[in-house]
Amino acid sequence: MDIRTPVHPEAANSLMLAVIASSNAPILLLDGDLTVIAASTSFLRAFQIEPASVPGRPLAGLGAGEWDVPQLGSLLRATVSGHAEIDAYEMDLRRAGQEVRHLVLSAQKLDYFDADTVRLLLTISDVTDARLREKLKDDLLREKAILLQELQHRVANSLQIIASVLMQSARRVKSEETRGHLHDAHNRVMSVAAVQRQLATSRLGDVHLRAYFTELCESIGASMIRDHNQLSLEVSADESVTGADVSVSLGLVVTELVINALKHAFPGHRHGKISVDYQSCGAEWTLSVSDDGIGMPVDPGSGRPGLGTSIVEAIAKQLDARVRIADANPGTAVSIVHARAPREFDARNAA
């Protein structure tokens, strides 16, 4: 048998007043005429109102009249009649000699013992400082973006100057070996410039790799392929997205491998195609650059790897990936593979 002891209205009213008075949030209890019945201590303290002046006083008469806001009064009266409801109403509280405070108010009509008795619970949140922090954060981000854009322009200009100086030097020197080194250096600078130019358009967010690789290869092709009927450069990739830092490394790898293929895979003005592909599945991904050129030397020898190879291997190591070189029959395929660790490795580390 469910036996419940009814709560006397006076006791319930006293309990409600005690809860409101001790609340940590600024709260007002109003009657149907928008007269203040009770106010929380936090409201009195936050808005510097004398406690003795509050009970029995109209909301519009609190303080020096700063709460006399016609729109707020209209919304509260509509809430009393049940024709409206205040949820996150924003207003500026203006007081003489003090800074403007930005407030967010909500009002709720309470179910009371007596149907003819109306009570409104008005809660107030001061969001001035939070909005100021948001504005400062937005201003800092905007300033950072402007500075980054300026830095990118300066880097691009500097790279163009360096590339021009290298090319002029290559034209003046008589040594074929030195000229070759200068041309290699020029190609390296142009590759970095191409990566930088494409990343500048991606801002600070995530980079969509298919569009990024496509624009990057178009830039390389425009500067290094003289006859596009002779050589073509194609890109295929899934919908993968990555951060700007990883895309920098991937872009440098693509640039190095494409330049290497353009230099060595098609001697004697051979026709051919270079393909760039990127596919991922979860944490596993593969970036490959392949060509249908003359292929790898029969006896590559035991000499040191070239600068391009060293750069690719170093970047792959940073990405925790491996470099795989294979005969594409015809041509050469170089892949950068990032695979999940073996299960036994994961278990050992988990332990």
UniProtKB/TrEMBL annotation:
Any one GO molecular function term: protein histidine kinase activity
Alphabetically ordered keywords of this record: ATP-binding, Kinase, Nucleotide-binding, Phosphoprotein, Transferase
Signal peptide: none
EC number: 2.7.13.3
Presence of keyword Kinase: yes
PROSITE patterns named in the record: HIS_KIN
SMART domains named in the record: HATPase_c
Reactions catalysed: ATP + protein L-histidine = ADP + protein N-phospho-L-histidine
Residue ranges of coiled coil: none
Domain Histidine kinase: 150-342
UniProt cross-references to Gene3D superfamilies, sorted A to Z: Histidine kinase-like ATPase, C-terminal domain, PAS domain
PANTHER family for the chain: ETHYLENE RESPONSE SENSOR PROTEIN, TWO-COMPONENT SYSTEM SENSOR PROTEIN
Protein name, as recorded: histidine kinase
